[in-house]
Write a structure and sequence with these properties.
By secondary structure, this protein is an alpha+beta fold. The protein has three domains: 140 residues, Arc Repressor Mutant, subunit A (Orthogonal Bundle), CATH 1.10.10; 82 residues; 148 residues, no CATH class. Helix content is 56%, strand content 8%. It contains 16 helices and eight strands. A hairpin with a 5-residue loop joins strand 5 and strand 6. Helix 2 packs antiparallel against helix 3, helix 13 packs across helix 14 and helix 14 runs parallel beside helix 16. The protein is elongated. It starts with 15 loop residues before the first helix and ends with a helix.
Length: 403
């Protein structure tokens, strides 16, 4: 393999890292040329790599202006693809490089070029006098060139793409955490407000006073630059507080209030003309049917055994007081989940009227289980309700999708 000057020109000092990066580059190239690179090819599309590096620049310790300098350097290589199995020397003058870097000053250029070298993405190939140029033979083929070698950029393509993927995954998790925190803060505040407005709680009540203090401590703007660890801890604390607040609020309801709500829903169910059907032991069973129906799902069966339902929708159990021992517990937990997901009472009443209490509770549990994939729980529930009113909705396929 042809060798170039290893040491930098002029007063720039050779460091152990520079020497190690040079040795690593030559070892990688030797392995690829010998067919020992495994899945690595040493080749990459330059603008794809630069875009990925822009996403992961913090991982590589680079600024956005350093990426701009790298993109300017890459533009001097005419091929869109980089083949790192051999040196890829570009030799622009400072004036030309400055123009392609949007008029960057020479001192700034030097600083960012040094950061790219330090990151191991380019390598200096200095001539004896420090000038950047190439020598050509009689046919115009380049015999030797002095400038910056882009081969390290191609050889590290897989590392760059992997780091960019990790950054994107982290960004998605952070965005989800920020959304969940905002929803928890809103819903906890509204539940506490409702409890005080209804006279179910006062500041003299120690438990509710503690809720207010804990919410105040967890409130405040969700910082855009917050770390994933900090956001996760805050989200977990809010989730615990929310569960306690919802449980305490439900406990303020009397048996008569809960019973009245059930009677109201049952009245609508009995008068519903919905053609909603369930799959029960391989048979189609119409809800609200006559005496000839083998099973009345609203009273005896939900079309699925409770244990099978909890296996498919385990999250609903977190919102049931004292756990889930029957469908009544599922119905109560679904009411809590409805509030948590921001679904309006009118949408929930319409669903219960069209589907029945148990079916609507199953749908709510399914929405909770897939909440990260459902952008608008309220709109999704209304859509299912409309289908149920038209007799075009069945619980079975939806539950199978969760399996």
């Amino acid at each position: 393999m042809e060798r170039f000057a290893t040491t930098p020109f002029g007063g720039a000092r050779l460091t152990a890292r520079n020497f190690a990066l040079r040795a690593d580059l030559e070892q990688r190239q030797a392995r690829l040329c010998a067919g020992e690179g495994g899945n690595a090819t040493g080749q990459a599309e330059k603008y794809r790599i630069i875009r990925a590096l822009s996403e992961a620049r913090a991982v590589w310790g680079l600024s956005d202006r350093a990426i701009a300098v790298l993109e300017a350097l890459a533009s001097f290589h005419q091929d869109r693809h980089l083949d790192g199995r051999a040196p890829i020397i570009v030799f622009p003058s400072n004036a030309e490089l400055s123009l392609r870097a949007r008029g960057m000053s020479p001192a700034t250029l030097r600083r960012h070029l040094a950061s790219l070298v330090e990151a191991g993405l380019i390598l200096r190939r200095d001539s004896a006098n420090g000038k950047r140029y190439c020598r050509r033979d009689d046919q115009g083929t380049v015999e030797s060139a002095f400038g910056f070698d882009l081969a390290p950029l191609a050889l590290r393509a897989e590392d760059i793409l992997s780091s960019a993927a990790l950054v994107r995954d982290s960004a998605r998790r952070i965005a989800r955490l920020r959304t969940e925190i905002s929803l928890h803060l809103r819903d906890i505040a509204k539940i506490i407000e409702a409890a005080f407005a209804d006279g179910r709680a006062t500041l003299e009540t120690p438990v509710w006073q503690a809720f207010v203090e804990r919410l105040r401590g967890l409130s405040g703007r969700v910082q855009r630059n917050g770390t994933e660890e900090d956001l996760s801890a805050r989200n977990a604390a809010l989730l615990r507080l929310r569960a306690e607040v919802e449980t305490a609020y439900l406990e303020t309801f009397s048996e008569q209030e809960l019973s009245a709500n059930d009677d109201h829903s049952e009245h609508h169910i009995q008068n519903s003309k919905s053609d909603l059907t369930f799959d029960t032991n391989g048979q189609r069973v119409k809800e609200g049917g006559g005496a000839s129906d083998p099973i009345a799902p609203e009273r005896k069966s939900a079309g699925i055994a409770l244990k099978d339902f909890l296996r498919l929708c385990p999250d609903i159990a977190d919102y049931a007081r004292g756990g889930v021992s029957g469908w009544a517990d599922v119905i109560g937990a679904a009411a809590v989940v409805r509030s948590m997901l921001g679904i309006s009472p009118s949408a929930w009443d319409a669903a219960r009227n069209a589907m029945g209490k148990i079916a609507a509770a199953i749908v709510m549990a399914a929405i909770l289980q897939r909440s990260t994939a459902i952008r608008s729980p309220g709109g999704y529930l209304r859509d299912l309700t409309a289908k149920a009113e038209q007799g075009r909705f069945s619980i079975g396929p939806m539950l199978k999708a969760l399996g």
